[in-house]
Amino acid sequence: MFLWKEISGRDEAFMAEAVKLAYQGRGATAPNPCVGAVLVDDDRVVAQGWHTRFGKLHAERECLADAKRRGVNPAGMTMYVTLEPCNHHGKTPPCTEAIIEAKVGRVMVGALDPNPKAAGGVQRLRDNGIEVVTGVLERECLDLLADFRLWQESHSTFNILKMAATLDGKIASRRKMPEAVSCARSFEDVHELRSKVGAVVVGGNTFYADNPSLTCRQTPLPEDFTQPLAVVTTSRLPESDSRATLIAERAQSTIFWTTDAAARSEKADALRALGVRVWPLPGGPGCLNLALGFERLRYEYGVHYTLCEGGGGLAMQLMEQGLADEIVHYVAPRVLGDNLAPSAYSGRGDVSMRDALNLRITRVEPSGTDIRLTLRLDD
User: Fold this and answer.
1) pLDDT of 74-90, one tens digit each?
2) Residue 3 above 70 pLDDT?
3) Which terminus of the chain has fewer CB atoms gathered within 10 Å of its CB, N or C?
């Protein structure tokens, strides 16, 4: 993983390692945050851990358990942890207790805990004679917590907008055929993303042009794996006898977000008879209030993450409605050069550069022959 900012300094470098570890738990830890920790002695990492799954040990306890397995005594050493150690009894005991018992000498904290029930860990450590420094690589640690903070503050899902485009910003040829834009490694990466989300969302154009299945095709899949729900946002519902994969093979797992009028139509009733869910959302064609759909996904199905894979129109709707919580954009080193080919982000009218939506790059990583950019709307 390459953080976008230049990493300078010893403490920042070790915290960057903890951040990298934390991301390995994404998806499995929800609704808990992703957290990483490393134990450092004499300028080298001697143990590490991350929160692997909801209900399992937190990162600090995983790190201390790793130290024990390695025969390392943590006494007097420095622990780097991306989130303030918890100070309450939940599914596991407070991490502050484990740190105090292990006689860790110093704790470097990336971000303070936004959950008031779990906060207070920094003060408890200090009260027990442990030196604590906060705010190390804070921006990166807060980005890591963006999903957790959203769940604490709203009823929405955390929405990852995925886009793959050529260097000139094209996502398909003008014929709009379902052709690969990015490389095989990026394709695998997308399916890894699908394995971590509860729903995959596309627009109507993608549904009709690509006939997607919206399943995770990683191999092997865990025995208890459940395929994500398939969500299509469109004002034009298909016929119930459609040969579309989502209708013919995944009806019970498919949801259409559509206009109120379309949801009350005979087409909608016929789809519901197959087990397809049809949800009306306020707004008109091309401008549905998607926020209500995401809230319903979380409320009714316990979905915490969605992966939005539609075309340029859906991407722009999500961004303009403030619903693209994270953007994963694959840049393929290819140039189409066709003005009529569809663009990665589209649908706005005549706007000047001052009206552009500004993004902030948080990570840059190679993905086979492509570059994977992780971005957030500028805050």
Assistant:
1) 999 999 999 999 987 66
2) no
3) C
Q: Which two tokens stand for residue 31?
A: 């609704």
Q: Find all residues with CB under 8 Å of 317, minimum gap 6, and list them.
A: 286, 287, 288, 290, 323, 347
pLDDT of residue 1 exceeding 80, the answer is: no
For residue 129, how many other CB atoms are within 10 A of its CB? 9
239 is catalytic: no
Average pLDDT rounded to a whole number, residues 41-69? 96
- State the Cα angle at 318 between 307 and 354, rounded to 5°: 135
- Strand runs (DSSP E) across the chain, as ranges? 2-3, 36-41, 44-50, 78-83, 106-111, 131-134, 158-166, 199-203, 229-233, 254-258, 277-280, 305-308, 326-332, 359-367, 370-377
Q: Which long-range contacts (CB under 8 A, 24 or more apart) does 8-11 make?
A: 10/43, 11/80, 11/108, 11/133, 11/136, 11/137
What residues have CB less than 8 Å from 219, skipping those under 6 apart? none
pLDDT band at 8 (very low <50, low <70, confident <90, very high): low
Reduced to 3 states (helix: H, G, I; strand: E, B; else coil), residue 301 is helix
Residue 45, both tokens:
């990492």
Beta strand 277-280 with 305-308 is unpaired
Q: How many residues are given for the chain?
A: 379
Amino acid at the residue 218? Q
* Per-residue model confidence as pLDDT tens digits over 270-308: 999 999 999 999 987 778 999 999 999 999 999 999 999
User: Which residues on adjacent β-strands are paired with residue 232?
Assistant: 202, 256
User: Is the pTM above the cut of 0.85?
Assistant: yes
- Per the DSSP assignment, residues forming a β-bridge with 230 are 200, 254
Strands 36-41 and 44-50, by their bridges, are: antiparallel
> Which position among 12, 17, 60, 309 bears the catalytic label?
60
Positive or negative torsion for Cα 12, 370, 305, 90: negative
